[in-house]
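Q: My hope is that you can spare some time for a protein that puzzles me. Underneath my words sits a plain record pairing an amino acid chain with its backbone structure tokens. Those tokens are not coordinates but codes from a learned vocabulary of shapes. Thank you; the sequence and its tokens follow:
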Amino acid sequence: MIHSCPQCGQSLIIQSPGAHQCPNCGALMEIKAEEFAWEKGEHLNDFMTPPDEDINRENIESPDEEAGSQTSDETPIAAIASAGEIPKSEPAHVHCEICVSRPAVRACKSCGKLVCETCSIIDADSRPLCSNCRVGASAKEPLFENYRANGFIRSFFQALHDIFLKPSEFFSGLKTPGPFWPGVFFGVLVLFPVRIITVIFFALTLESNIADIESQLGFTMPDSFLNIIHQPAFLIGMLASSLLLQPLFILADIVISGAIYHLTLIITGGMQGKFEDSIRVSGYGKLGETPAVIPYVGAFIAIPWAIVLTTIGLHKIHKIPKWKAALAACMPYLICCCGILAVTVPLLFMGVFAAI
């Protein structure tokens, strides 16, 4: 098994349970049999002393009695080490799990990854941390995660500022595990006015859009339908229904998107967060969709920006490579594109065959 030295963090290959000495710093350590990571085919009893040959640590003869050169205050492990009976464990020659090019020298105390000197630091508490966890350890938790105590207005605008200008620091500050509902609430708040403005713009331009559709498809809408959309009650009803239903639609959007992110990461493997963490990223990442309020060109800005924010969030909160985070962030949009193609392509072929 590979075990980290508690003194210097050096990754060591431990062949069997018992007392061992680190070749790097000389620290002594004891690996208990019940804590040893057994290889396939090995069993705990293979390394246990038979009952009739059981040796109690307290019955080990003191080096004072044998050589008269050691003090009685020495621990049993130290006494055995001084007698030369503790094998020095060999360093584990494994590659760094972050850069994959340099040999690993220690294990991150936060995520457990084996990392090299370049990709790790020793923090103020003498804990070895990898470069990913180092950023998270120094980042402050976003105020919106506890907006009731920090003040709603201040927390909300601080979150807007940080996600806009410092998304990497913002998502690094999210503690895991953490509550998912602040992220969901934030996503609903930022998308609700965008969706309402979009609905109003759609209603105001509906007549011209219908004319374009009629000219492209070559048919005319029934007069009864045109009379309905010209009524003021139609616009009022559309706006009222949007005010009531849009929060539910946005909530469903956040949850479904988070579920797609999480499922994609389960397939690719390597994530460390939970399903709730994917929902949090989905909620905070919805800020990237706000440019969709710009008529005609907004979607071309909103989709790439939302993908970037979501990629950063998944990368930071799940401690995964960026390519996996980017794949998961793109997956909802890929599914939507496939769905649109599945509907429009058959209709296109039907129109072509009808014209023939």
Remarks:
- The longest strand covers residues 18-21.
- The longest helix spans residues 232-268.
- The beta strands are 2-4, 11-13, 18-21, 28-31, 90-91, 106-107, 114-115, 120-122, 128-130.
- The radius of gyration is 31 Å.
